[in-house]
Write a structure and sequence with these properties.
The protein is of the alpha+beta class. The protein contains four helices and ten strands; from the N terminus they run H-E-E-E-E-E-E-E-E-E-E-H-H-H. Strand 5 and strand 6 form a beta hairpin. Helix 3 crosses helix 4. One 2-acetamido-2-deoxy-beta-D-glucopyranose binds next to loops.
């Protein structure tokens, strides 16, 4: 595990640099960095430091799929810098369900284990891939995608870099079936009955 962590830190540094060059898409700022609100004088290095991901070091693997984000919300120093991270932990057989990131491309790097991943483009073509440790995959901005650890014995660990300080995540299941959209609209949209919609909804609400 120690070597995994070292690899992770190295990779984190490299992907941060790459993403900033290749995928920056938030509005450009006109200053080197953006200070916290109500700050007029220079801040110190702690503003540019985030230690919230130390929680994955020296701890046992979570029992279900877990995301640790380092985005603008958790790490205010990212304001205006167009980058962020998510650390994805997949115990055996776990899924990061269908979702989109409305504001950023995602560059996923598999640090340990393997993952089945896929996205669907606007012509409804599926691009799916089996990724091994050391592989990367890019999920284009705003497209529906998933990641799944199909291996029955090995957990998987991945780091995703985003070309936005606040990529945003919209879960397909929750936004469609766990919001307050009128059932009739859902039934008509999916060409099915209200009963079927209720059944799907109840699975998410329980
Ligand atoms: C920031 O400035 C506003 C306006 O002066 C003030 O109302 C607010 O309390 C300040 N917030 C902090 C965290 O200092
Ligand atoms: C993890 O454990 C090692 C060995 O016990 C220790 O040196 C290191 O400081 C720990 N790291 C964290 C972040 O707790
Ligand atoms: C699960 O991962 C282990 C270790 O990498 C590998 O030996 C095994 O073949 C994998 N099993 C499947 C079903 O892919
Ligand atoms: C459905 O929405 C409720 C209320 O927002 C939330 O507590 C619950 O976790 C959601 N279900 C799932 C499966 O995320």
């Amino acid at each position: 595990m120690a070597s995994v962590i070292t690899t992770f830190l190295f990779i984190a540094f490299v992907s941060f640099t790459l993403v900033k060059v290749a995928f920056a898409s938030d509005p450009d700022i006109l200053t080197d960095y953006v200070l916290p609100p109500n700050t007029t004088t220079a801040t110190d290095a702690s503003y540019f430091t985030y230690t919230g991901v130390r929680s994955i070091v020296n701890t046992t693997y979570p029992s279900k799929f877990t995301v640790i984000k380092a985005s603008l919300k958790e790490f205010p120093g990212l304001l205006g810098q167009s980058v962020s991270y998510a650390i994805l932990q997949f115990p055996v057989g776990s899924l990061n369900p269908l979702h989109i990131h409305p504001r950023a491309t995602e560059l996923l790097f598999v640090i340990a284990g393997s993952l089945q991943v896929g996205f669907v483009d606007t012509t409804n073509t599926l691009f799916s891939q089996k990724l091994e440790t050391g592989d990367m995959f890019v999920f284009p901005k705003g497209l529906v995608h998933y990641q799944y650890n199909a291996n029955g014995t090995e957990p998987a660990l991945a780091v995703s870099a985003f070309g936005s300080a606040s990529a945003g995540t919209q879960s397909i299941a929750n936004s469609v079936f766990n919001s307050t959209i009128y059932e009739g609209i859902l039934a008509e949209s999916f060409k099915t009955s209200a009963d079927v919609i209720e059944k799907i909804e109840s699975g998410l609400k329980s």
